[in-house]
Design goal:
This protein is mainly alpha-helical. It is built from twelve helices and five strands.
């Protein structure tokens, strides 16, 4: 796809004032960083499970999924953790998979935590002490819906921009939103594939819908009452940072 979205009327320029709220190391990184953005509910459940677990064990679980992917002709199914954990894992990887599955009350499939794993580490939602995950102030802050830590993730993962566009326009049809998102990603992310860019948008819409901030009405994306309140709060943070 050619970069033909510069005429789009939605604002896609980065707003540098927000960066003063975040760590300097994050401010210089691109937007839309996580290729598999998870729902925050999944991340928050993992934040309650992973403290006192070795990061290397979680990475081993993530790697096990990729190393045993099957083939195109005979792909492996990862839909039933009660079956595949015992059949495909052993040792510490099996132990942490069992913990995630049962302590999340069988709501978080251990096979699909890669996006949450990336998010937790990139934004330091857990601290590390000798390679062991521990809770800190960032953990507590991310488990609140309105906090600077949530804003930090929302901003750098592009969710803030989707909310701002919906606030600016009142409602967005899919083609308008896709055009603005493509422009944002071409200008400020490392993604170049149209398929990857549109997939990343779908993930972010799903995230915001689950949080009750966006809804779809007559085929258009718009803010809910909670979305309007949250966006007003975010814009207030921006004013304070200016």
């Amino acid at each position: 796809m050619q970069q033909t979205f510069v005429e789009n009327k939605l604002s896609t320029q980065r707003l540098p004032d927000e960066a003063t709220l975040f760590s300097p190391s994050l401010a210089v990184e691109p937007l839309v960083r996580n290729p598999k953005l998870p729902k925050y509910s999944v991340v928050r459940k993992l934040l309650g499970i992973l403290p006192n677990v070795a990061k290397s064990d979680v990475r081993g679980l993530v790697d096990a999924k990729f190393l045993e992917a099957g083939s195109k002709e005979r792909p492996l199914s990862w839909k039933k953790p009660d079956q595949w954990i015992a059949a495909r894992l052993s040792g510490s990887e099996a132990d942490i998979a069992i913990r995630i599955w049962h302590e999340s009350e069988k709501t978080v499939n251990p096979a699909i935590i890669y996006g949450a794993y990336l998010l937790i580490n990139r934004y330091e939602l857990l601290s590390l002490s000798d390679g062991i995950y521990t809770k800190d102030s960032g953990t507590t802050a991310f488990c609140m819906e309105w906090s600077n830590k949530v804003f930090e993730v929302d901003y750098y993962e592009g969710l803030y921009h989707v909310l701002s566009w919906a606030s600016e326009r009142g409602q967005l049809d899919r083609s308008e939103l896709q055009a603005a998102w493509c422009e944002l990603c071409y200008l400020h992310s490392r993604m170049t594939s149209q398929k990857s860019i549109l997939t990343s948008l779908s993930q972010r819409i799903s995230n915001l819908k689950e949080r009750g901030l966006l809804e779809e009405v007559n085929g258009c994306i718009c803010l809910t009452n909670s979305g309007n309140a949250y966006t007003d709060w975010l814009h207030g943070l921006k004013i304070k940072a200016a």
